Amino acid sequence: MALSLALLAPLVGCKDDEGKKPEDGLDRRTMLASVAKEVVAPATAAASSKIAALVTAVEAYTKALGGGDGASERQAAQKSWREAMVAWQHVEVMQLGPAALKTSPGGEGQRDKVYSWPTVSPCAVDQQIENKGYESPTFVEDKLVNVSGFDALEYLLFYAGADNACPSGAAINRDKLWEKIDTAELKRRRADYALVVAKGLAKT
Using alpha carbons only, what angle is made at residue 120 by residues 114 and 123, rounded to the nearest 5 degrees? Predict the structure, then answer.
């Protein structure tokens, strides 16, 4: 999770003008360095570790589908998603550096690539399932944030219905494209897509 290191830079590199101690006696540089070391670093390290474990769990699920229904592996992947999401929530409240909004100092809006809520679209995810857009080598980089990240991954791992979230007028329903995907293939596509998203989280 490359974002974790970038989050530390604004704190560690911060200093008062000419390195002087401010008149109020508070050594802000030392304080911010302490926050980076004792708060930000442990939180981002924990999130990185849990996301790495999530990738492993989803990969095991995709492999299991090659010789069975993968039910237990899917449950393990869901558990790993929950644990990774909890870990990310500790980082979520520290939106600074690249993770901050572009309107903030140093902000690059990278947070949405990890967790875009409330910008979510199950229908958009289903459209990528239908057209196998996730198979593109640059899928995570090229697509809108509402088809990747923790929120899209939650939908892919937890929803097992045979229908989709798009309205009847959407092409996948209007042109009966979704109906051409049988149950086994749908499960496989969701798992393969989930692995792409999980790996994308690990690289962010």
Answer: 125
CB atoms within 10 A of CB 31: 12
Kindly compute the dihedral angle of the four CA atoms of residues 56, 127, 118, 154, in this order, to the nearest 10 degrees.
-30
Estimate the share of the chain in helix, then strand, then coil, as percent rounded to the nearest 5.
65, 0, 35
Q: Residue 157: CA atoms inside 13 Å, Cβ hemisphere, count?
A: 31
> What dihedral do alpha carbons 74, 75, 77, 82 form, nearest 10°?
150
pLDDT per position as a tens digit, 137-157:
999 999 999 999 999 999 999
User: 53: which residues sit within 8 A by CB, 6+ positions away?
Assistant: 80, 83, 84
Report residue 44 as tokens. Answer: 């981002």
**Closest by Cα among 200, 152, 187, 202 to 73:** 187
Distance CA 165, CA 42 (A): 38
Residue carrying structure tokens 């990528």: 128
86 SS3 class: helix
Q: Answer whether residue 100 shows pLDDT above 60.
A: yes
Contact by Cβ (8 Å): 3, 47: no
